[in-house]
Amino acid sequence: MILMYIFETYLDLRQHAALKLPTLPKSLVGVISSEKFEKSRVYSLDKSYFHFVNEAVSIIMDTAILCFGVLPWSWKISGEYLVSIGLDPENEILHSLGFWAGGMIWSEVTDLPFSLYSTFVIEARHGFNKQTIWLFFRDMFKGICLSIILGPPIVAAIIIIVQKGGPYLAIYLWGFMFVLSIVMMTIYPILIAPLFNKFSPLPDGELREKIENLASSLKFPLKKLFVVDGSTRSSHSNAYMYGFFKNNRIALYDTLIQQCENTEEVVAIISHELGHWKLNHTMYTFIAVQVLTFLQIGGFTLARNSKDLFRSFGFDTQPVLIGLIIFERTVNLLQHLLSFGLNLVIRSFEFQADAFAKKLGYVKALRAGLVKLQEENLSSMNTDPWYSAYHYTCPPAVERLAVLDEPDKKVE
Fold first, then answer.
1. Which residue among the candidates 123, 265, 354, 375 is catalytic per the annotation?
2. Which of 25, 201, 204, 406 has the most CB atoms around it within 10 Å of its CB?
3. Is the Cβ–Cβ distance between 260 and 369 less than 8 Å?
């Protein structure tokens, strides 16, 4: 864990050095004003300094938790609490839920100062934060309520499956996680996302007509087209698709519509998103994630019966939830390597989606839209290639623009 922290800090230092560069990259010279560049540089450096502090605190806390036996102590305390309220600590599901609740409280408390500083100091200082302190805590409360509603049945189901899975445990557990991912992907945009943002139908007009015509020309089964009130929380912008089969939807942040100079730029950005659908990127990514999930579950089933592994973390018993936590810690390096490999694939998908939009004739509008979003979001304009490859699933605009400017280059 510490070695991973050192390696990632090295990448952070490389990125920090790139952010300090006083000149624009070649592909943005004459496109981005010096004023916008300087604002972007200051904003990126502010976030970089904050990131160094956040990561340092995280590694110190995680190391202390492991070295001082906080995990077994917390497990013991949660059992004693169950006894104090008249419940049986020998019931693994109840004991695990008590432990899980304590971990959730700890996570909320330790994350709160960083979330507050990021939102109300850094984001506010650079003109992005639009939410009030009341809205911040209301969203936080809703998130906690969702965790209380969804967490216990999921934890209980996993424990029961592991206890009764037998020789086919890996298949049963993966099947449960597969169904859970489908259910969450289905209900999140319909039931959960509207708890935090307002989704309104895109009004009739030129923009709606152009998006519908584009979707129709690609035979994209567009069911609904929404505008999301992202401006109530931040002036950052976004657009995304969601849904399955014949029930696909597109959501545009109101900030995206406001920031783009004309409808053609918005449509060009949507053409990039539709490129992901047409080229089956979403399906390929989903399949890859499922394969990785199955491999991780298979590894867990091999490690869960190791008494020595549990003892090395201070446990005399072998609770399922604790086993999952220990396994995640143990294979941390391997998970990072697998995530990096998947990250490289997803990055290639982004370039392919740009090439798709380019073939549709949106290269000029897409380029203008990317530049506009780069300016308005004050995105990092100088990026270290190693840092970018490791961290960014979506390549920085400067890399995408450089490829778009090469008309004869085939993007793979």
1. 354
2. 25
3. yes
pLDDT, one tens digit per residue, over 238-252 is 888 777 667 788 888
Q: 201-208: long-range contacts (C-beta < 8 A, 24 or more apart)?
A: 201/225, 201/226, 201/227, 202/226, 202/227, 202/252, 203/227, 206/263, 207/257, 207/263, 207/266, 207/267
197 torsion bin: left (phi>0), alpha (psi -120 to 50), beta (else) = beta
What is the per-residue DSSP string for 332-380?
Answer: HHHHHHHHHHHHHHHHHHHHHHHHHHHHTT-HHHHHHHHHHHHHHTT--
Closest of 170, 173, 146, 145 to residue 161, by C-alpha? 173
- pLDDT tens by residue, 86-105: 888 889 999 999 999 999 99
SS3 33: coil
Residue type, 126: H
Is 273 among the catalytic positions?
yes
Rounded distance, CA 137 to CA 132, Å? 9
User: Strand runs (DSSP E) across 237-298, as ranges?
Assistant: 239-242, 248-253
Distances in whole angstroms, Cα of residue 208 to Cα of each of 127, 194, 245, 250, 358: 29, 21, 21, 11, 21
295 CA to centre of own chain: 21
Do the Cβ atoms of 23 and 41 come closer than 8 Å? no
Q: Region 405-409: what's the mean pLDDT?
A: 61
Instruction: Please say if 354 is a catalytic residue.
Output: yes
Contact (CB, 8 A) for 385 and 402:
no
Strands (E), 202-315: 222-228, 239-242, 248-253
Find the catalytic residue in 273, 350, 376, 399.
273
Using the predicted structure, report yes or no on whether residue 27 has a pLDDT greater than 80: no
